[in-house]
Amino acid sequence: MREGISTLVWLLVVAAIVYFRLLRPVRLRASRLWVGPAIMIVLTLLLAWGSYEGHAPVLEIALAVVLGALLGLPFGLLRGRHTRVRRTAYPHVLIVEPSVIPLAIWFIAFAGRAVLRIALPHAGPTALAASDGFLAFAVGSLVGARLVIAERFKEASRSGVPG
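RESULT FIELD:
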C-alpha cells in the first residue's frame, strides 16, 4: 500500500511539472534548458531506488533504466524536430510551443509501470525493474527533445536575428 501512495505522489509531482513546463508556451532561457530534464532524471532515479527497496536486483533496475533511456532518446530527437520554437527579441531566449505529446508519453510511462506492477504482482523482481524502464523511456524522450532545442539555441545565437 505504501508503494501505491508513493507512486501516486510522484505521479502528481510529474503531472504538475509536465503541465506547467510542457503544456503551455514557455519562455526558455539557454541557461535553464536542462533544469526540467535534470529534475525528471532525479525523480526517475528516486522511483528506481524505490524498486531497489522492493528487492529488485540493482543490475536489473540499472539495465532497465539505461535501456529505457536509450530507447526514448531517438523518439525525443524526432519529437524535438517537430516542436515549434520561436525566437524572441532577447538573445538566448526562445519560446517553446506546447504539445500534448509529452503528457501522453508520461501518462503511458506511468500507466505501463502500473500495469506491470498491478496486473503482474507475482512476476517477480524483473517486472519491477522493467517497469522503471518505462519512466526512463519518458526521460530519454525529454532529453532527446531538449538536445534538438539546444541546437536551435545555437542556431539562433549564430544568426543573431531576433524574432
